[in-house]
Amino acid sequence: MITKDPLKDHRIRKINGSFAWISHRFIRQGYWDSLNYQELVLYLFLVMVADRQGMSYYGYDKICSLTAISLDEYIQARNGLIDKDLIAFDGRLFQVLSLPRKAVATQTSKAPKQPVGHCGLIPIGEIFQKSLNITGGPND
């Protein structure tokens, strides 16, 4: 087994206050590939703002503003995530759900993920920079 020692001991991540995590299954079992760009941005946003039970109450106006997706894209992404059994929504509250047994592919799953990087992958930093309109970074 490979020993993995932290490169910077003083910068080891800890959960302080808020709570966000994504299971490795999200990548390994096809959930990442099952989402289009807007679904992925919305899902990652909801994961980041959710509490330990996956609950959050951000409204569509704030979500659209922070993620830089249009209202139509938000509605399609929200409905796509509901159809794929990744979130629940009651009109006011969101719940990020535990991952279902299998990723659910739908017709929207095959939509391009937008700027495609090396080997067809999009760096997660690029997704957040684009969706949150953040400038600056290693390539700027």
Structural summary, described in words:
With 140 residues, the protein is mainly alpha-helical. It has one domain (24-131): Winged helix-like DNA-binding domain superfamily/Winged helix DNA-binding domain (Arc Repressor Mutant, subunit A, Orthogonal Bundle), CATH 1.10.10.10. It is built from six helices and three strands; from the N terminus they run αααβααββα. Strands 1-3-2 form a three-stranded antiparallel β-sheet. A hairpin with a 4-residue loop joins β2 and β3. The protein is globular and about 45 Å long.
Task: Please give the structural blueprint.
Blueprint: H1 25-28, H2 31-34, H3 37-49, E1 55-56, H4 60-67, H5 71-83, E2 87-89, E3 94-96, H6 124-131
Antiparallel strand pairs: 1-3, 2-3
Helix pairs in contact: 3-5
For the structure shown, list the relevant keywords.
single chain, 140 residues, mainly alpha, Arc Repressor Mutant, subunit A, 6 helices
